[in-house]
Amino acid sequence: MTRSLDRSNKHFKRAEKQLPLGVSSNWRAWGPEKTLYVERAKGARIWDIDDNEYIDYRLGYGPAILGHCDDRVDAAAREGMKLGGTFALSTVREAVVAERIKKMVPSADLVRFTNSGTEAVMASLRLARAFSGRDGHIMVEGGFHGHFDSALWEIAPDEDPEGGLRPAGAGVPKVLRDLVNIVPLNDANRLEEVLKQRGDSIGAFVIEPILGNAGSITAEEQYLKDARELCDRFDIIMLLDEVKTGFRVARGGVQELMNVRADLCTFAKAMGNGYPISALAGREDIMRRIGGDNGIAQGGTYAAHSVPLAAVEKTLEILDETDTLEQIADYGRRLQQGISGILSGRGIAHVFTGHPSMAGLFFTESVPRNYREWATTDYALYNRLAAELIELGILCEPDSREPWFVSAAHDDACLAETLEKFETALSTVLDRKGVSAANV
Ligand SMILES: Cc1ncc(COP(=O)(O)O)c(C=O)c1O
Question: Which long-range contacts (CB under 8 A, 24 or more apart) does 329-332 make?
């Protein structure tokens, strides 16, 4: 049985006349025949406009942590709308929600609300520059911190094994190149080398300790400890980008999970269960450089809009006060066990990375320690498998660099269906003529 995408394909033709690539975000463009248009969603499931049903392991790249259209959060958002939205004035709830964030994330002395992950990281980086008096920053290979010029730099280990730094797309000013440094994950010596060479021009070390944009390849605890010490020694601000990990991998995010304390940190995705909102937070002395004399410009028309803010209040209340995160992790572990059983039954070497609530799946013998090692895994097999899974209604990311996200709405029925379809998809991929599963 194959899916029909007649309506989506037809709509694509209409949409591409109005929207570049037929979509509103480049990463949603899967081409004329595969781009999906969503009709509705509930819990862990999504339906496209052809009425194909999917179990969703993308969750919009993580946000829908309680499941799509969670009744409790939606009711709170409706209450939020009664306030009126946005006023170029503040509401009481901002400080109330900031108190919750501070309770969950001990490094969050002060909080500012923004609208997207990009905005939160962009403001944090500006803040780090203002506080340190240094304009350069270090990022980690395979990390993604949003679509603003200072962050849109990458290496492409699959295309360029030498790992040359390049802008991620056109239009990024080349003059910024000098401000950007990039290091591999889990190599504290390399980080130290860069700091020794260029430390006096570097204000921030920006890292996603679980690389949510590189298959959840994960920092080792010792590396994070070393990185923390190096940041202190060289007086660099450690900016933990928890846009994906925040309020997901633990109540206190990666900082709790891995016992590390950020100077600044950023949150988005899970905090509002899909409502558009984000935050930056951190050390009081740094955060106090926002505004005032000699402070940074930070703000925005829609910052702390009353609808998403009310959604955050409810979402965080649930995540903080119930065992939801433990349930999500438990589902993730059972999913991995099931998938592992199927793959091992076929003799296919594989590993999982990250956290059970946002895990990467790699076809390889040993756990990749950095982004370059991703390129040595059989990601072509992953890509074929993912395409087949989507065909069968298991909506994982077609690209192996995006983890599988789990929500509180994934239940036993989802698990059974996912595993059954995983088995079928794998058989199809392996049986298909011309396929060389390198590690089978
Ligand atoms: C770690 C990280 N930081 C920042 C961003 C940018 O967030 P947004 O897409 O909300 O601008 C993303 C997006 O996926 C992300 O994963």
Answer: 329/355, 329/356, 329/357, 329/406, 330/356, 331/356, 331/406, 331/410, 331/411, 331/415, 332/356, 332/357, 332/358, 332/359, 332/404, 332/406
Q: How far is CA 24 from the centre of its chain?
A: 18
* Pocket lining for ligand 1, CB < 6 angstroms: 61, 116-118, 121, 144-146, 208, 212-213, 241, 243-244, 268
Q: Are 71 and 59 in contact (CB under 8 A)?
A: no
Using only C-alpha atoms, what is the Rg of the chain? 22
Say if pTM beats, i.e. exceeds, 0.70: yes
**CATH class assigned to 71-321:** alpha beta
> How confident is the model over 326-352, as pLDDT tens digits?
999 999 999 999 999 999 999 999 999
Whether residue 319 is predicted with pLDDT greater than 90 in this model: the reply is yes
Pocket test for ligand 1, best of 125, 140, 145, 185 (most atoms within 8 A of CB): 145
Fold classification of 36-68+323-431 (topology level): Aspartate Aminotransferase, domain 1 (3.90.1150)
| Domain residue spans of the chain | 36-68+323-431, 71-321
Q: How far is the centre of ligand 1, averaged over its atoms, from the C-alpha of 150 (Å)?
A: 14
Length of the chain: 440
pLDDT tens, position by position, 234-244: 999 999 999 99
